[in-house]
Amino acid sequence: MEENTIEKINTIEKINTIEKINTIEKFKKKNRFFELYICKLLKQISNKNGINSNAKQQLNSTICIMASYISNLIFKLTEIAKKKTISIKEVINAVKIIFPIKLANKCIIEGYKSIKNFTNKKLVKGGSRQGKAGIIFPPSIIEKFLRNFGYSKIMITSSSPVFFATILEYFASELLSLSINFANTNKRIRITIRDLELGVRHNKEISDVFNKLNIFFIGGGVIPYIHSSLITTKKRKKKGLETTKKYRFRYGTVAIREIKKLQKTSDCLTFAKFPFERLVRNIVNKTNNGMKISKDVFIILQYHIEQYMIKFLKHANLAAIHASRVKLMPVDLQFIRTINDITNLKEDCLKEDCLKEDCLSTSDKNVGFIMKRMRVKEDKKMVK
Question: For the whole model, what pTM was predicted?
Answer without folding.
Answer: 0.72
